[in-house]
Amino acid sequence: MNTNQTREILLSKQRRLQRRVSMIDLDFRRERDDDFEELATESENDEVLSALQNEAIVELEQITKALHLLDCGRYGKCLDCGQDISKERLQVLPYTTLCSKCASDDS
Question: Which residue intervals of the chain are DSSP H helices?
Fold first, then answer.
């Protein structure tokens, strides 16, 4: 995978996640129902949306970091051990900053 292709993958994923966060924000701002049962359902939905939004925000931070590493010429190197991150791992998690070994050590 070349640098331009990697950048496009990261930027595309970043745009999708930013849209997701924006849509969830819009949903949180909508007017709520007065019915107690409906409020309970909306509250449960809000919890799920909040968790999804938090995950998207964390992923956006990881993508921003990966784009920075790409700009610095350090993309694809493990931040813990300095070894190359496998191409297979980068294809699955293009924003990862750890090789498989270091990632499993951190678990």
Answer: 3-29, 36-72, 87-92, 100-106
Cβ-contact 99, 89 below 8 angstroms: yes
- Do 21 and 71 sit in the same domain of this protein? yes
Task: Tell me: do 34 and 1 sit in the same domain.
Answer: yes
The whole domain housing 15 covers 1-75
Reported pTM: 0.80
The pLDDT of residue 40 is 64
CA distances from 105 to 13, 24, 88, 99 (A): 27, 34, 19, 10
Strand partners, 84: 77
Tens-place pLDDT, residues 32-51: 666 656 666 777 788 889 99
Residues 70 and 42 in one domain: yes
pLDDT at 57: 96
- Residues 78, 14 contacting (CB under 8 angstroms): no
User: Residue 5 is encoded by which pair of tokens?
Assistant: 């292709």
